[in-house]
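User: My collaborator sent over this chain with a note saying "see what the structure looks like." That's all I know about it. Can you take a look?
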Amino acid sequence: MTSGNKVETSNRELNDAEREEFILNNNWGFLAFAGDKPYAIPVSYVYRKGTFIIGLATPGRKMDYIQKSRNVSFTIAKPHVLTGFKEPCSGVMVEGELEEVPDRAYYGMDKELPEMPENLKLFRIKVDKVGSRKCTNIPCRVFTPEIKKGWVSAEVYAHQVHEGRMSK
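Assistant: Without extra context I'll predict from the sequence alone. Here is the result:
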């Protein structure tokens, strides 16, 4: 961080009801695998009976990582730019172990995916740790750099893109 930058964050842990609502109102996140080198992929999920269920296509690099270690972290994040700047940024972070789903009917997945593609395996995350954060500043500001002449901050840029005044 260069001098002149000032961290202006204020956040708090989500309570149980907020965390549950956040998880239920989202459907994708980033699944990170442990291994020789870090590896993370965006995935969609369903949340049933307090469990994250993720479908992973086989074969692939992710399956190589699963063969070595089933330890994963999973992050769901919602930056405030995705809400039209009406909500603060929030996130839920989970650490745990991937397990293949033994009984699709228990989670209702037999009705949603009656004929599962051969190359798709369903996994659940056996959760060890859960953390969450919600920025209490509106708009949420992670940092406020000194703006050089002619530059705009990331926040201003995002507002301008959102309003159609600037292209991406």
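A starting point for your reply to your collaborator: The helical segments are 16-24, 61-68, 109-112, 154-162.
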